[in-house]
Task: inverse folding
C-alpha cells in the first residue's frame, strides 16, 4: 500500500487549501489543515501517516499512545485504528472513568482500550513506564504523545511542497514539537529563506525548544526558527474571556472556526505581532491552522 492509497482509504483531503484573509489590514494566508477530514484533526494526520503505513506493512495489530482526556491526537488515532482494524490502547492522563469527555466517548464507541494513569505514571511515559508497556506488549507499536516522533517530520514536511509560493514566515502552534520540527527540516532541505515561527501554547520556555531540537537531525539543524512564549495565556488549555471573545470574533469576520487551545492562541499572537510591526512591510505570512476543534466540545 502507498501513502496515497492509505489517504484515499481514509478519505483524507490533501493538499489542504491556502485561504487569504486580512488581519489588522494585513494580508496573510491560512493553510487550512483543519479541513482535510471531518473527524481527523489537521496536523494529526501528517504526524502519524508514515507510522500507520509502516504498521500496516508490518501487519501490526496493536498501537499504544498517550494523551489527556480531550486529546486531539488520541481522537484521530482512535478513528484511524477503528477504520484499519488495529487495536488502540490509549494511555490517558487522569481518571475520567466517572466523567467521560466527548473524546473518550468516541474512543469507547470505536472500541479502543482506555487506561487511566496518574500524573506520576504518565510523566514516566518516555522511560520507566514506556519500558513496562514494551515488556507487556512486545508486538505493539508505541507512538509518542501528540504523534511527535522522527516519523512525523516527513509527513509534516510534505506541507511545504504543497504551497503555492515561498513565504517569508510560516507560523504554527507548538505543544509537542513535531509539527515545528517537520517544518524546520523541510525548509532546511529545500534551502528556503522562510523563517519558521512557533507560538508556544503552554508554559515551556527552553522545554519546547528542546523537544524540537531532539527531533531534528543534525544535518537539518537551523537557526532560522524561533518559539514565542508570550501567548500561552497561563498554560496548556488555559484561557480567559479575552481569548474566547477573540475566537468568536475571528469566526464572525473570517468564517474560519478556531479554538482557544491551539489555533486561537496562534491567530491572536499573529494579530498582535502585526499590530506591533514585528513583520517587515509586505512580508508573505502563512499561518498553519492545525485543527483541534473537537477538543473544545
Result:
Amino acid at each position: 500500500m502507498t501513502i496515497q492509497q492509505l489517504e484515499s482509504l481514509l478519505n483524507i483531503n490533501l493538499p489542504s487549501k491556502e485561504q487569504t484573509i486580512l488581519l489588522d489590514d494585513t494580508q496573510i494566508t491560512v493553510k487550512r489543515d483543519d479541513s482535510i477530514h471531518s473527524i481527523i484533526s489537521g496536523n494529526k494526520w501528517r504526524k502519524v501517516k508514515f507510522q500507520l503505513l509502516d504498521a500496516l506493512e508490518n501487519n501490526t495489530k496493536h498501537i499504544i499512545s498517550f494523551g489527556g482526556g480531550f486529546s486531539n491526537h488520541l481522537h484521530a488515532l482512535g478513528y484511524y485504528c477503528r477504520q484499519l482494524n488495529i487495536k488502540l490502547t490509549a494511555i490517558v492522563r487522569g481518571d475520567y472513568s466517572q466523567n467521560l469527555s466527548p473524546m473518550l466517548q468516541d474512543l469507547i464507541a470505536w472500541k479502543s482500550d482506555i487506561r487511566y494513569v496518574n500524573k506520576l505514571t504518565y510523566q514516566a511515559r518516555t522511560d520507566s513506564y514506556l519500558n513496562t508497556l514494551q515488556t507487556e506488549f512486545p508486538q505493539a507499536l508505541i507512538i509518542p504523545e501528540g504523534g511527535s516522533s522522527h516519523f512525523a517530520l516527513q509527513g509534516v514536511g510534505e506541507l511545504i511542497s504543497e504551497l503555492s509560493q515561498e513565504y517569508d514566515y510560516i507560523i504554527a502552534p507548538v505543544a509537542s514539537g513535531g509539527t515545528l520540527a517537520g517544518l524546520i527540516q523541510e525548509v532546511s532541505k529545500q534551502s528556503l529563506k522562510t523563517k519558521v515561527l512557533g507560538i508556544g501554547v503552554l508554559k515551556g520556555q527552553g522545554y519546547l525548544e528542546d523537544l524540537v531540537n531532539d527531533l531534528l537531525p543534525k544535518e537539518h539543524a537551523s537557526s532560522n526558527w524561533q518559539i514565542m512564549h508570550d501567548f500561552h495565556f497561563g498554560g496548556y488549555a488555559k484561557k480567559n474571556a479575552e481569548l474566547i471573545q477573540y475566537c468568536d470574533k475571528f469566526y464572525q469576520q473570517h468564517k474560519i472556526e478556531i479554538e482557544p487551545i491551539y489555533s486561537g492562541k496562534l491567530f491572536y499572537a499573529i494579530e498582535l505581532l502585526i499590530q506591533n510591526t514585528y513583520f517587515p512591510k509586505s512580508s508573505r505570512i502563512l499561518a498553519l491552522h492545525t485543527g483541534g476543534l473537537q477538543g473544545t466540545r
Remarks:
- The longest strand covers residues 26-32.
- The chain has a mean pLDDT of 95.
- Residues 43-57 form the longest helix (15 residues).
